[in-house]
Structure formats: C-alpha cells, structure tokens
Amino acid sequence: MAVKKEIVMSGIRPTGFLHLGNYFGAIRNYVRMQEDFECYFMVADLHSLTTHPDTTELRSNVERVLAENIACGLDPDKAAFYCQSHVHETAELYLYLNMLAYMGELEKTVTFKDKVRQHPENVNAGLLTYPVLQAADIILHRAKYVPVGKDQEQHLEMARNYVNRFNHRYGEVFPEPQAFNYNAELVKVPSLDGTGKMSKSENGMSTLFLSDEDDAIRKKVMKAKTDSGPTEMNAAKPDYIENIFNLMKLVCEADVIAKYKADYNNCSIRYGDLKKQLGEDMVKFISPIREKINTILPDKAYLKKVMEQGAEKANESAGKTMQLVREAMGLKYF
Ligand code: ADP
User: How far apart are CA 130 and CA 294, in angstroms?
Assistant: First the structure.
C-alpha cells in the first residue's frame, strides 16, 4: 500500500512582482517539497483585496505570480497550484473560524498594526481577520507544513490556536500546522537599504525582483547602504553591513564570502569591490529566472490550463475536509 504523503500548503499574494525574499523565504522550499509531499500552493488573490481593493490589474498580477513561480521550478503537474478565489469552501471555513478568533488577539497582530500604520485610510475588517483567512487556507487541506518566511511566524501560531480551539470544541479534525524551512531557521531576506525586509510593496530600489534586468540589479546592489569601513580589527558589523553579508550567503561562493569577511576583520575591506561581486552573482542567479518568466507569461492558454488543473485538485481536497467539518460541527441535518 502506498504511504500517504504529508500535506503542505502555502500562498503568495498577487500584489506585484516577486522578489528575492519570496524566492528564498518561500518558493525555494516549494520546489523541493513538491518532490516529497502532497503540496497545495496558492495565489492568494482574496488576501490581496484587503490592501488592494482596485482589481483592474488583478488578472495580470495573478498571471504574473503563476508564471514567476513556474519559472522558479514550481511544477503544476506535481503540486496543486491554484487561485484562492477558485476554492469557494475557503470562505465557508473562514466564517466558522471567525467565531473562534478573538478581537483582542487580532488587534495585537504585528502585521495588522503595520498595515494600519501604512494605510490609515483603509482599516477594513478583512485586514483585521487576515490571519483567520490564512488559517482557513492552510487547514482546508489539513496541511501540516507551511513553507513561509520568518515574517509569517506569528500568523502560524494563530492558526495553531484556531485549530486547537476547533478540535477541542468539535473533535479532532485538523493537525496543527507548522512553519517550515529545510534549514532549521526561517529566512528573512533583508532590504538593500538596511531597514526591514525586501517586499513587493517597499521602495523598488531596495528590493531585487526576479524580473529585474541585469543593469537594474547591478545598479540597486551598488546603491546598497555601506560606510567608510571598520576602523578597528574584528569590529562588530552594523546591521546594514550584516545584511549585505546575509545577501551574499544567498548567491555567492563560500570562498568569496570568506575573503570579504577576512578583509572586514582586518580593516582592508573595499565595499565597492564587494558590491560589484555581489551584483554579478545576483545577475547570474536572477537572469535565467527572468528569461523563463518572459517565455511563460505570454502563454495565456497554458496559464489558464494551470489554473483549471490546480482548482480541480484543490477543490477535491477542500470538499473532503468540509464534509468532516460540517459533520463535526453538527451542521449536517440530513
Ligand atoms: P510580500 O511581503 O512581498 O507581499 P507575501 O506576503 O505575498 O510577500 O509573502 C509570500 C511569501 O514570501 C511568504 O511566505 C513570506 O514569508 C515570504 N517572504 C516575503 N518577503 C520575504 C523576505 N524578505 N524574506 C523572506 N521571506 C519573505
């Protein structure tokens, strides 16, 4: 008898071009996990409505996220790769989970507080219950592992709370989902300006996008924040320098990193050379992905087929879970 594979779920919002943070925080794990797990990867179009209510560009953004993930190696024949809005049961489960989520804890969520600060004119209830919708996405497939970046840790903890409350009240239906990364630590890819993380919505100059042209990549890396260098041997690195070394770890050879670390420690480091090297290694990493994106994106018939195939697999799994949920909750009257 075939051993049932463990279930994995994750999603990315279609709110703009994907970047290096999405790749190393999430997509790189998707590509490995699709070989060994039953995977559900989702374009989170409903989530994007919480911050992007104008839907004029939604279709092209959805197609872009599909094409960009596939260009990175996500295989729609191996994983279920689908759009959130094509699985209507998500909305049903979201409704049930809302009754198990408390205002106080939702208001304390770091991402909610950040978004209130960024968009004080649009503090909608969907924004407040974002972690509830995310929990519904995950547990709709009864997923155990969720490959995400470090920024999502708190949301996963909330998802576990809802699972425990549900299981406690209505009976064991859901496993507790856990954030997952192949290397023990969750990843945070820092922004090039030395503050925060790379993100779709941040200033474009401090984020490296997977579809950036070679010259744009070089230019952005050269502009990354540095200073005139350490003046004492083996000095501690300021955050923005530590960030640059962290970016090197993603794409540079180990001996190159070791050389610049040694140069830093003996005060002979030349940041201009370091950034030139980092820029070239970033170009080497990003340009083949960009070229693949450019061949996949114009093929609308293929992207439509991917969505249909993904929706079919995701709906089958969601349907099974919701049968169990309705039964456990006593909502099946005949
Ligand atoms: P963004 O914050 O750019 O809008 P999403 O919220 O759509 O990205 O997140 C998609 C995935 O990418 C999530 O798993 C998230 O943890 C991951 N991610 C986003 N930014 C980073 C980053 N700078 N470093 C690591 N992972 C990231």
Answer: 32
